[in-house]
Design a protein that fits this description.
32% of the residues lie in helices and 25% in strands. The model has no long low-confidence stretch (mean pLDDT 92). Among the domains are: 172 residues, 3-Layer(aba) Sandwich (Rossmann fold), CATH 3.40.50; 98 residues, ANL, C-terminal domain (GMP Synthetase, Chain A, domain 3). It has 553 residues and is an alpha/beta fold. The longest helix is centred in the first third of the chain and has 17 residues. Strand 27 and strand 28 form a beta hairpin.
Length: 553
């Protein structure tokens, strides 16, 4: 008999939950520091939200926005939308009103789900009222008409009551009772794996974020295969991740844990002491700190005790070699898994193998994951690059985005006629087929795991009446990988201090996008490459500038 190797099973997002609730209803699916919910609990709550959405007139294929921190409300809404074949649009809770407003309009939302808690650090209702001023003037039960979001038919509080323009939780619960669970089940069974499941927005090379359309197969197939076949342990799969669930780096581990019949452990926000206490109590087998800032803060915390985390078998971490080697020494029985991925590929498209050496794991980003094709090509000619020579990474696979929502031009530029997605990232291959990252072809910064388009920050800075020209580059940062730094030319007749421009950004764009330093440039002081500012030359100047005048932090 021919050994045909492995096979895959692909399910729609909601079916993973239904299957888990049937197979192990009383097993914990999601655990927070102060609460825990079984598979049966989550399915019941998600079905209740799904019934409420159907009662509001939301149908299969409609786009449903979700603005909430990690919590049971996020979970029940995400899977409630999936149960009726809705296309979920998670909104970045770190975005400011202007960014939220753009996404709500661009995504053609039919429903908007959020939470209201007077004790919370950020009141999302206030943010949404600022983003959609007409919402604050609307009676929730008077027939919604929001000029800023003309397709929006309902705004719902998953937690809270009495907010202008929003249906409170008690009203949603009452509406849900008018729709039977059987109706939800009928709709769920019509969903196909190649239908859109989500639109995840990511910063691009334009002034506004781009909506990556991801299918059910893209969201579920890779995470479920990895959790069930690559991250195998003698015990039940238990994942911890400290990141926000609106980000693919946290959402994928949740879906994987569910597919493997496991448990996902997280918190409303990341704080190293709380995270360590939670991990010590719940004993995860796999952890996803992903980025140096999170990993370093865990290891530097006074309560850190590696012996108390002896349940760990796999750790996903990207960072400098010295950190990887330090973590490996600290957790000698755990496998450090190197990987690379992006929102447009629904997360991971390459990861290290069990046989890879620690040298490979600390200096490379793994190999193509099963079912995924990779090419490294000369970005100018498209020719295949030899080993050791950097080129643009191209990906072709089931996980690649269907395109950028309502943007055929950018979609055509990113996905060629043969189905290859052009990542804009520079990689090379070693002799052992491991991938080495060499930076971004696109003008993009990576700040603590978040994509930041330089032009997005530049466009905002230029809104200040004193700013004539802005150029943003990344400054290397041990904790966040890199942080934005701005070079500014002031308009003639105006004057402004660097700290005033930083203050101008506060509260208007996401904190991680705000320049950590601003340096003034004279009109004839720009390094130019043909007709464009030469940002590489700016980066070369930066150390001397900051050592002489000091950076405004």
């Amino acid at each position: 008999m021919v050994d045909n190797g492995d096979w895959c099973e692909v399910l729609p997002v909601a079916d993973l939950l239904v299957r888990g609730a049937r197979r192990h209803p009383d097993r914990d699916l999601i655990v927070f520091p102060d609460s825990r919910y079984t598979y049966a609990d989550v399915l019941e709550r998600a079905t209740h939200v799904a019934r409420g959405l159907l009662a509001l007139g939301i149908r299969r294929g409609d786009h449903i926005g979700l603005l909430a921190p990690n919590g049971i409300e996020f979970i029940e809404a995400f899977f409630g939308a999936a149960l009726i074949g809705g296309v979920i649009v998670p909104l970045n809770a770190r975005h400011k009103a202007s960014e939220i407003g753009y996404i709500v309009a661009n995504a053609d939302l039919a429903a908007l789900l959020t939470v209201s808690d007077d004790r919370a650090y950020v009141d999302f209702v206030d943010v949404l009222h600022e983003a959609l001023p007409s919402l604050a003037e609307t009676e929730a039960d008077a027939g919604m008409h929001i000029p800023e979001a003309p397709l929006l038919r309902g705004a719902v509080l998953l937690q809270g009551e009495g907010k202008r323009g929003f249906i409170g939780r008690s009203t949603l619960d009452r509406l849900a009772e008018t729709v039977s669970p059987e109706e939800v089940d009928q709709v769920r069974r019509r969903v196909r794996v190649r239908e859109a499941a989500a639109i995840l927005y990511t910063s691009g090379t334009t002034a506004n974020p781009k909506g990556c359309v991801l299918t059910h197969e893209a969201l579920t197939r890779g995470p479920v295969e990895r959790a069930g076949k690559r991250l195998v342990t003698d015990d039940r799969h238990i994942s911890w991740a400290g990141g926000p669930l609106f980000h693919i780096a946290a959402l994928s581990p949740l879906i994987g844990a569910m597919g493997a019949g496991g448990t996902y452990v997280t918190d409303v926000y990341f704080e190293p002491g709380r995270a360590l206490a939670l991990m010590k109590r719940e004993r995860p087998t796999t952890v996803w700190p992903w980025f140096p800032a999170m990993m370093q803060s865990l290891m530097d915390h006074p309560s850190f005790d590696a012996a108390a985390l002896d349940s760990l078998r796999y750790m996903f971490l990207i960072g400098p070699r010295v950190l990887i080697e330090q973590v490996q020494r600290t957790f000698p029985t755990a496998e450090l898994v190197a990987a690379c991925g992006m929102t447009e590929t629904a997360g991971i498209y390459a990861l290290s193998e069990r046989s890879d050496t620690i040298t490979d794991r600390s200096g490379t980003q793994g190999k193509a994951a099963p079912g995924i094709e990779l090419r490294i090509v000369d970005p100018d000619t498209g020719a295949e690059q030899p080993r050791g020579t950097p080129g643009e990474m191209l990906v072709r696979a089931y996980c690649v985005t269907e395109g950028y929502y309502k943007d055929p031009v950018k979609t055509a530029a990113a996905i060629d006629g043969d189905g290859w997605f052009h990542t804009g990232d520079l990689y090379s291959r070693t002799e052992t087929d491991c991938l080495v990252f060499h930076g971004r072809l696109k003008d993009m910064l990576k700040v603590g795991g978040e994509n930041v388009a330089a032009i997005e920050v530049e466009a905002f800075l230029c809104e200040h009446p004193s700013v004539k020209t802005a150029a943003v580059i990344g400054r290397p940062d041990e904790r966040l990988d890199e942080v934005p730094v701005a070079f500014i030319e002031i308009r003639e007749g105006h004057s402004i201090e660097p700290h005033e421009l930083i203050e101008f950004c506060q509260g208007k764009i996401a904190r991680y996008k705000i320049p950590r330093a601003v340096h003034l440039v004279q009109p004839d002081g720009w390094p130019m490459s043909a007709t464009k500012i030469n940002k590489r030359a700016l980066a070369e100047r930066l150390p001397a500038i900051e050592s002489s005048v000091g950076a405004l932090q």
